[in-house]
Here is the input.
Amino acid sequence: MFTPSKKGANAMPYRLTHARHDPSHCLAPGLFRSLRKGERKRLKLDVTFTYGDDSIRFWGPEPLGADDLRILQGLVAMAATSGDSGRGIMLRTETEAEPGRQLRLRLDLRWDAIEKDVMVAKGSFRQLAGEIGYPDIDGGSRFKAIRDSIRRLWAVSVIVKRGGREQGSRILSDYASDEGCGMLFVALNPRLAEAIMGDRRHTRIDMGEVRALQTDPARLIHQRLCGWIDPGKGGEIKTDNLAKYVWPGVASEEAMKKRRQTVKKALAELAGIGWSVQEYAPKKWSIERPAI
Here is the structure.
């Protein structure tokens, strides 16, 4: 599959500028959410979202949190860098190299996906940690957290319906890792690959902003806002709608008060990384993204 080297495993983290993300993975309500202790064991993931002509169902054994969101952002950013950098691989349909053919066979592509190129993120856990702003991962707990997130993402099925056709895949089509040398190999699903390669509309996620944000609510709100506000443009939204980006379920009025306070703190984080944030009326916000 790949032959890692000790040199690659110990390289300094890269600093990719942005991820070309699929909007449906960014905008689906509840796909990523704030999780309290114990909820990951109790809850399941079952989110259906309509985007354009597609009805997309995300279905998995565990809910996805802000930690999983960061991992996916990093993998998408790494996969966009193809060629000699060692971080990304594009498996084209017409590849004649035997390793490429074997990798495509391993992905078990079906129907339309057979005719499409595949994007793969290849690199090290250290590189991935650096791209998303994690501290050094020499400790085993951080390495395990990243690996567990990749496993959760791989376990999530993505079922897309359009008209009378239905196609299923996983968020991550395939993955492998080598704990001994710290290397990983992750193939993305067709929608993510198409966004990276420009075959469908993409959401631009600024990786500098991802690395700068400090709290999970800010990270969750940031991705959802990036999904509908283009760089250099703005929009208006209510506090309670922003709260749903973090906690999709209903809550008591007392809980909502706490959530609104958390939202204000998250918006202050966005302002701290260059976004324009103004409360133009009680519980109503005007938000603008920095231009590229």
User: Anything to note?
Assistant: The longest helix spans residues 253-272. The mean pLDDT is 84. The radius of gyration is 19 Å.
